[in-house]
Design a protein that fits this description.
29 strands; nine-stranded mixed β-sheet; Luciferase, domain 3; 3 domains; alpha/beta; globular; Rossmann fold; 507 residues; GMP Synthetase, Chain A, domain 3
Length: 507
């Protein structure tokens, strides 16, 4: 593909020549053939060029999704520009950062939406597509395979970044989708995108269009109650579903006949694709029994693309995992110093592969997310000997203390399971410049002997995961709804004892 497609929109033009009448996009009662879609993209590229958009310009798309959004995306790519999807609210709130860090000058918004004065705002009216008929021509620009083609915004530890993905990396990501999800390797499979599905909607949609398939778009405002009928109207489709919608449909499919396995909502789907994060293992298994036998759970992010897929064959036994990673993706779990840990041990996840992005824009190139060719997604997990990857939480929850790695949420979950504990939080405390301790702070709902709570922890946690000290407090201070660990440590009535497992007396 890289040898013939110097611009991603070339794929649409190729299909317009080879199969002009084939369906490309469907939205409601509107169907666009590949010939019609290629024509609209060419005309829209003239409009975008007339706006003054130049190659390598970043253009914000604060659009609600749909056909116009996709046409604009491909039109921007065609003139050599870089599309960036943002929400209208973020466009207003972060206009200064967008203009200074990313040098954004243009933004597209639905007509009737106000944009920030710092940008040249282009209002896209409902009749915008019809207005393209007044334009003719094509402003295609051949692009360098290793220049940024897409930007995606991510927030990490309170700081905004724009992840840049090149043409070469995007093609590698589309191949990863086809490799891990066989249904999407077949252009005869319709791709159904109901509602809002997040960052992967663009990857799945572009990939399927570049493969010559049909993409069905729906109104994001469509009520969940109407979703089952919509999905059932596309038998044999591959449907991408956000986790909240999956949970809603699971609740709707909880009748006796469905729950017993006698029936399910979407038996005709070729694939039901759900993002793995946000669902519990029991919900994943329930989806395979109540929604579709062909349900797959995928995981990835803006910087890495698709990481892993958990398919129907592995789901019953490995629902707690995200599946086996893409075989072309290198996945390493390491300790705090970057040294790989043993198979099955808890560690920081690091990724490297053909679809993984380069250091982000809007931040220093030495950003800790990207080091020595590896990407750190700020995730903690385990990689089993059989290759299954389990994610446990965010990297800042895994801390090093006395030569061990301790996952703080595990301590908190164990403490909260005790009937006498109302609240609990675990923190790392520096005792000396070279020494740290793990302290747990507990708010009791009823009286309990300290040694009973200590025994409860020893029964549920490995010895090297036990807190060094547990202190009882009357309340956990909060800021903006979150536990304020810094304030809690500042209010300590004495330094940590440094005695492993010591339980402080109740106040």
């Amino acid at each position: 593909m890289e040898q013939t497609w110097r611009n991603l929109s070339d794929a649409i033009a190729d299909h317009a020549t080879r199969q002009p009448g084939a369906h490309a996009l469907i939205e409601g009662g509107l169907t666009l053939s590949y010939a019609h879609l290629a024509d609209l993209i060419g005309r829209a590229s003239v409009v975008v060029h007339d706006w003054g958009v130049e190659p390598r310009d970043v253009v914000a798309l604060a659009m609600p999704g749909g056909i116009d959004h996709l046409i604009l995306t491909f039109a921007l790519l065609r003139v050599g520009a870089i599309p960036l999807d943002v929400s209208p609210g973020f466009l207003d709130q972060a206009a200064a950062w967008l203009t200074s860090a990313l040098n954004i000058r243009h933004a597209c918004v639905p007509k009737g939406t106000n944009g920030p004065e710092a940008l040249t705002v282009h209002a896209i009216a409902p009749d915008w597509r019809a207005s393209l008929q007044r334009k003719a021509g094509d402003r295609r620009v051949a692009r360098d395979a290793d220049e940024p083609h897409f930007l995606t915004l991510v927030a990490r530890r309170g700081r905004q970044h724009a992840i840049a993905v090149t043409h070469r990396q995007w093609l590698a990501r589309m191949e990863s989708v086809r490799r891990l999800i066989p249904a999407l390797a077949d252009p005869g499979t319709r791709l159904l995108l109901p509602g809002s599905v997040g960052d992967f909607a663009l990857l799945f949609a572009c990939g399927h269009l570049c493969g010559g398939g049909t993409v069905v778009l729906t109104d994001p405002a469509l009520p969940a109650a109407e979703m089952p009928a919509l999905i059932e109207s596309h038998p044999g489709a591959a449907c991408v579903m956000p986790p909240p919608l999956c949970r809603i449909l699971l609740s709707a499919a909880s009748g006796p006949s469905v729950a017993s396995g006698d029936a399910m909502l979407f038996p005709g789907l070729r694939a039901l694709l759900v993002r793995a994060t946000g669902l519990y293992p029991v919900e994943k298994v329930a989806a395979s029994r109540r929604l579709s036998p062909n349900v797959c759970f995928f995981h990835g992010d803006a910087a890495s693309g698709l990481v892993a897929v958990l398919g129907p064959a592995d789901l019953p036994a490995r629902a707690d995992t995200i599946g086996r990673p893409d075989p072309l993706l290198s996945v390493v779990l390491s300790d705090a110093g970057g040294v790989p840990v043993e198979a099955g041990a808890l560690g920081y996840v690091r990724l490297r592969g053909p679809g993984v992005a380069a250091p982000p824009l809007g931040a220093a190139r030495t950003n800790a997310m990207f080091r020595d060719g590896w990407y750190d997604p700020d995730e903690v997990g385990t990689l089993a000997p059989d290759g299954f990857l389990t994610l446990r939480g965010r990297g800042f929850h895994l801390v090093a203390s006395r030569g061990r790695l301790v996952f703080l949420p595990d301590i908190e979950r164990v403490l909260r399971r005790h009937e006498a504990v109302a609240e609990a939080v675990a923190l790392v405390v520096r005792v000396e410049p070279s020494d740290t301790r793990i302290m747990a702070f507990v708010v009791l709902g009823s009286k309990v002997a300290p040694d009973m709570l200590a025994r409860h922890c020893r029964d549920a946690l490995p010895a090297d995961q036990l807190p060094d000290e547990v202190r009882f407090v009357r309340a956990l201070p909060r800021r903006n709804g979150q536990i304020d660990g810094q304030r809690l440590l500042a209010e300590l009535d004495g330094p940590p004892s440094g005695q492993g497992g010591r339980q402080a007396g109740a106040e």
